[in-house]
Amino acid sequence: MATHAYIKLVSASKKKTITLSEVKELFQYYQDITKKTGEQLGWSYAEAAFPYTIVETDEGKEQWFYLKGKSDRYRTIIVGVGQEQILNEDTGEAEEQTFIQVTLPQGATHGDKGKANEFCKFLAKKLEGELHLFNGRVMYYYKR
């Protein structure tokens, strides 16, 4: 069975909405900084830090893409964006909240889960969002 984690963009987040292309840019930034770290260490850290290729399909255009593993330890992680209706506790009115959904499909490895947790924490920290982990716990990366 597939499991999901969510990075929710709350009112205290840096951004209120995000597009799929912006999420891809954040993954590109992640690859760049890990590559620079590897250069400083004299080790090809970028390959170990991001052992995936970003794959887009016509079916998921502008809604989701997946990360395809480059080795046997890593298979697939699905990343998508969406919006949900929430009730604003201050005003009592309904409003839209944007989220990033990270899905581990059935057949995902322990390596996929570890990398997915790492990517979720990176995205939540960068966007100052609210991270709902695969195990149901919540981590807050925004100022409260």
TrEMBL record:
<protein>
    <recommendedName>
        <fullName>DUF1885 domain-containing protein</fullName>
    </recommendedName>
</protein>
<dbReference type="InterPro" id="IPR015062">
    <property type="entry name" value="DUF1885"/>
</dbReference>
<dbReference type="InterPro" id="IPR036294">
    <property type="entry name" value="Rbstp2229-like_sf"/>
</dbReference>
<dbReference type="Pfam" id="PF08968">
    <property type="entry name" value="DUF1885"/>
</dbReference>
